[in-house]
Amino acid sequence: MAFIGEAALSKLLELLLGKSIDAALNFVADHKQVYDQLKEWKAILPGIKAVLNHAEEKQVQDKGVKSWLEDLQDLTYDADDILDDFAYEQLRLKLHKTQAQASTSMVRKLLPTCCTGTDFTPSSFLFKNDMIPKMKGLTDRLNSLSTQRSSLGLSEMLPRAASSDRKKPARLQPTSLMDGECVGRDNEKREMLDLLKTNSSNGVSVLSIVGMGGMGKTTLAQLVYNDASIEESFDYKAWVCVSDDFDAVKITKTILQSIDPSSHDVNDLNLLQVKLKEKLSGKKVLLVLDDLWNESYDDWTILRSPFGATTKIIVTTRLQNVSSTVDPMKAFHLDKLSDEDCLSIFCQHALRARNFDGHLQFKQVGENIARRCNGLPLAAKAIGSLLRTTCKNLDEWEKIYESEIWDSPEDKCGIIPALRLSYHHLPSHLKCCFAYCSIFPKDYEFEEEEIILLWSAEGFLQQKAKHQFKDLGNQYFQDLVSRSFFQISSKDESQYVMHDLINDLAQLVAGDICCRLEENKQQMFSRRCRHSSYIISTYDTVKKFKAFNQANSLRTFLPLKQDCWHPYYLTNVVLVELLPRLGYLRVLSLCGYRITELPDCLEILKHLRYFNLSHTQIRCLPDSLCTLYHLETLLLKRCSKLQKLPSKMENLVNLHYLDIRGADLIERMPFGIGNLTNLQRLSDFVIGEGDGHSIGELKNLSNLKGDLCLSGLENVNGRDAWEARLNEKSGINNLVLEWSGDFEKPTRKNEVEERVLDSLHPPKKLEQLFIKNFGGAKFSTWITDSSLSNLSSLKLRSCKNCKSLPPIGRLSSLKSLSIGELVEVRKIGNELFGENQSVAFASLESLSFESLPNWEEWDACEGDEQVSKLPMLRKLSIRHCPRLLGRLPTRLLSLQKLEIYECMRLVVSISSYPSLRELSVEGCEELVDECSSSSPGEEVTSLQSVTLSRISKFSIAAERRMLRFANSKHFVTRDFSLLPKMSHAFTFLTRMELVNCEGLVSFTESNFPPALKELTVQGCENLQYLLDESMSSNTYLLEVLNVDCCQSLKWLSSRGDICNRLQLLHVLCCPELRSLFLNSKLPVMLKKLHIFQCPVLECIAEDFHETTDLERIHMDDVGNIKSLPRGIDKLSHLQEISLFDCSNLVACFDEIGLPTTNLIDFTVFKCENIVALPKCISNCTSLKELMVSHCGADRSFSEEGFPTNLTSLRIFNAPEIYSSLVEWGIHRLTSLQRLVISGEECSNVLSFPEESIGMRLPPSLTSIRISNFDNLEFMCTKGFQHLTSLEELEITDCPKLTSLPEKHMLLSLGRLYIERCPLLKEECRRVKGPEWSKISHITCVRIDDEHLIPKKVD
To answer: What region holds the NB-ARC domain (predicted)?
Structure first.
C-alpha cells in the first residue's frame, strides 16, 4: 500500500503560503472576488500544513488519513497551477507594454475606480473573471479538508529542524572503510575469489549469491568484481543490471558494448551472440548478472550460449529457483548479519567509527537501533546515515528508536521499516526531491546535473538568494547521497543509481503522483498522475500513449534514452493531439526523437520550465517558444539541423540554462540575449558576420558558469571583445575560443585577431582552454600568466600564422597539452619550457603534437641539469610531423605510453624510458634502445603492447630486446623483417597482427612466437602457406586465426593437427586457396569456421568426426565446393549453418542429416544444387531462424512441416516452399517475430494474408516484409486483426497493390516502408491520398526515396 508523505505537500504548501500567494494577492488587488478567494486560502492553509507531520505517521494505520492526504495532495497541485496562471499573466503584461498602454482607452473610463489598478488591462480583467469558477471550486474543497482535519484527530507536531541551511557537504567518495571491506562477508569473498581463479574445462562456471533484498548481494559482487587480483586474472569484465525485466537482446548488447564500445547497435539476438562469441574467443571473461529474477531454463540456456569454459559468471538474485536454474558450481546464501556485524555497519555510517568507544552516550540506544535493523546491511546503512545527518543528540536517537514505523508491516515489495523511517526523517524539501525520483526505472543511471535541472523545473529548489539554483540543487543532491538514498554507479563514477529497495521506497511514497510506463506492460496512468516517464523505444507508436488518456494534469513528460546515437521515432499524435491537452507541463522532453518540426502552438504550455529537444532533427523553433516566459532550461544539444534561434528569445527572462552544443548550423545569437541576466549556463555564443559588436551582450551575463564556447571571433575587433568582460565571469571553468577555419577571407587581419585574443583574458579559475583557428602571429601573454593557477588542460589547434609557442612550461597545474596544425612552427626549444624555471611542466601527464608539417627541431634544452623537465609525463604522442629531425627528449622517467606516427626523419630512442609499457611506432628513421653508459643498471619495465612498422633502421641489441619485449602480449607490424629479430624475445606474446608484410612467405618454428594465441595476417601478398609442417603441435597454442586478402595463399598447413587448439578460423578473399589443410582434417577443438570469397577452394575436410566442438559453419561465395564433410549430423554443439552463393554445392540433407539438439540458425541462400531441405528439420526444436532463398520452383518443404519455435522465417524465390507454408498453417508458428516473404512466381496471390483461404498470421509477429508479388491487390484487414505487437511493415515490388489494412489494425506499427509500388504510392500521398489517414500516425514512413514521416531534413 502506497502512503502519502510530505513529499509534495509541504513543499508546495510552503510556496503557496509564501511568495506565490503574496505575488498573486498583489496582482489581483483590483479584483475583489479573486482577492477574497486568495485571502481565504491564505487563512486556511497554515492550519492544514501544521498537521502534516502527524498525518504522515498516522496514515500507516489509518486509511481515512491516507485518503485525506491524497485529496489534499490533489488540491495542492491544483492550487499551485492556479497561482502559476496568475504569475504567468503578470509576467506577460510586464513584457507586453503595448497591452499596458490599452489602459488609456475609452474602456478604462467606463470602469469603476476599483478596477483600474496598475496591472489593469481589458485582457487581464477578463482573465481574472475566468479564474473565479476554478477558485471557488478549490475553496470549497479546501474548507472540506479543513473540517475533516479535526474529525480525523490530526494535531500539530513540533517540526524537525530543517537541514537546508547547513553548509553544503563535500561530495562523498568511496572510502576504504566503507567499500574496501565487506563486513561479515569476508569468508564468502575469499572463497569466491579462489573459485573464480580456478580453471575449468566443463563449460561456463557460475557462482550465485542468493539473499533477500537489502542483504548486501550487490555489494559483495562489487567487492569481488573490483578486487585487484581479478583485474590480473581476466581479459574482460562486464557488469549488467538485469532486474525483473529480462531482455536477452538488451543484456547481450550491454555485455558486447562493455567489451567493445565501438560495436554497432544491432537488435538481432543471433547476430549479437555471434559477434560476442567472436570477441570472447580465447579470452578470460568475468560477467556479473546483478539482480536476476527470470527462472526460465530455456532463457538462461540461450543467454549463456556465447560463453565458453574461460567465462566465469556471478549471478545475484533474491530467488532460490533462479539460483537452481543457473546451476552454479557454488551458491552463496547470504543470511542476516550477526548483531555485531550489523552494529559495525551502523557505526560506520552513524559515527564514522567502528564502535562506540568515542561516543559512549549513544552506546545503549545505538545497540538497540542496530538490533532493530534485523541483520540487514542496507537498513543499518540507511538508519546510520539518517542519524549522522539529522540527529545530533541522545533525545533524537531515542525518538528514532521509539518510532511507530518500526512496527509497520513490511510491504509486498519488500520495503524495510528502517528505510521508511529514514525517509520519514528527511526534511520536507528532500522528501519532495526523493519521491520525484520514483519516475526513474530500477537500475537507471543518472547524472547530478540532469536531476538538478528537473528539480528546479518542478519548483523543488527554494532559492533563498538570486542565482543559486545550481548550488542549492547540488546541496540537496549530495544530502541524498550522504544519506545513502543515491549511490555512485559501479560502472561510471560520474553517474548515480538507486538501490532497488530505495527505488521501491520512492514509488511507495510517491504513490499515483509519479508514474512510469514499464516496458511490455499495458498501463493507464491515474488522473492523479502529475509526473511521468517511460523508456524510449525505436518506434514509440500511438498505442503506447493510450496510457496518458486520463492524465490531463501532467507536469512531467519524460522519455528516458538508453543510447544517445540510436534513431528513435515518435508518432505525430503526441505533438498534434496529446501535448495540446497537457497544458500544465513543467517538464517536456522530446530528446532523441527524429522529429523535424514542432507545431506553432507552444503558448499552450505556458507553465513549462524545462524543454529538451537535444538530438532531434528540428530545423527551426516556432516563434511561440518565446511566449514560455517561465522557461528555465532549454536543451538543444546536437540539433544538427537547427539553423537559428528565435528572434524574440530576450522574452525568456527566466532562462537559466541554454545548451546548443553541436547545433553547428546556428550562425549568430539573437539580438537581446544579453538581457537574459538569469543565464547561468550558456554552452555557445556564436558571433555572425557583421555582428561583431554582439559579443558585448556577454557583459551583462555575469552569472555564467561551466563551459563556454565563443565562435565566429573572426567577426570581432579588439574593442568589441573587451566589452565581453570575459575575465569577470569567475564561474567559467572550460573556455573555447574559435575563429573560422577559412584563413583566406580578406577581412581577416593578424593584428586585429591578436588584439581580440588579448582582450579575451579568461577568469582566474579557468581549468580548460582551447584556442582554435586563431589567425594572429603570436599568442597573448596571458596564456602563461601565473594567475591561471587552475589551468589543467590546454589545446592549441590550427593557429596557422603562429611561428613560436608561448612558455607553457610555467603553468604548474597543467596536466594535458595538445598542439596541432601549427604550420609555421619550425623549431620548439627553450621558449616552450620558460626561462628561470626550476621545474618545467611540473604536472604535465599528456603531451601531444599533431600535423606540424614544417617542424624540424625539438630542442629539449637538457644541458641544464638544474632544471627538471616533464617529471610527470606519462604519455607522449607525435603524429604527422614529417620534417622532424634528431631525437626525442631523454630522461622521461615516468613515460608509460609513446606514439610516433609518420615522422620519417625522426630517430626514436627509448633508452631512457624505464617505465614504458605501450610503444607504437609507425614510420620513423630509426628505433633505438640501448643501455646508457651512465646508468648501466637502470631498471627497465617490459612493454605490454608493441606496434612497429615502416622503421628504416632497427637498432635494439638482443639483450635489450629481451628486457623490453619479454612480457609483451600484443604485437602489430607491417614489416615482417622485424619479426625474426624479435620473435624469440616474445615469450609471452599472445596476440599478433601482420599487415601488408611483403616478405612473409610462411612461418617456421624458429620465427613463430611460442605463446601466441591470436594471429591476424592481412594483405600479405607473397604468403603461400602459413605453417611449416616441421612445427611441433605440442608447442602450438594458437586459438584464433584470421587470414584476409592474401593473394598467393594456397593452403594453411599440411597438417590440421598442428592447429589442434584452434577455435576460430576466419579466411577471407584468398583467390588461390585450394585447401585448408592438405591432410583434409580440421583442428579438433575448432568451434567457428568462416570462409568468404575463396572461389577455387575445393575441400574443407573429409569429415567432421574429430571436430565435435564445432558451433558455427559459415561459407559465402565458395563456388568450387561440391560437398560438405561427412558427419555434420553428429555435431551436437552446432548452432549455425549458413551457406551463401555456393553454386556447385550438392547436398542432400536427408542423406547427410542435421544436428537437432542445439541448431539455432539454418540459412541456404542461392545454392541452386541443394536437392531438398531435410525432413528432420521439423524436429529441430531449438531452431530459431530459418532462411531459404532461390531454391528453384520445384523445391517444397517436408510434409512434417516447419520447426514450431521459429522466431525468424525468410523465404525468397521459393514458391513451393511458400505454398507449403500457407497450406501447413503459418499461424502455428506461435513464436514467430520476423516474417520475410518474396513472392516470385506466386501469380495466384491477390491478397496478403490470403483472404480466400482464411490465411492467419501468428499474433507474435513484430516485423513483416513482403516483396515481388506481381498480382497482389490489397492487404487483408482481417488477417492483421490480432497483430497487436507489429512494429515494422515493408512492402516492395508489388505493382498492383492499392490498399493497406485499416488504421485500427496498424496502431502498433512504427515503421512503414513502401518501394516500387506505384499505385499504392499514389494512394498514400500526404494529406490528399485516400490511404493517408491510415498511416499518418505511424512514426516512420518512407515511400521510395521520399521520407513522408518524419519529413526529410535537407
So the answer is: 191-353
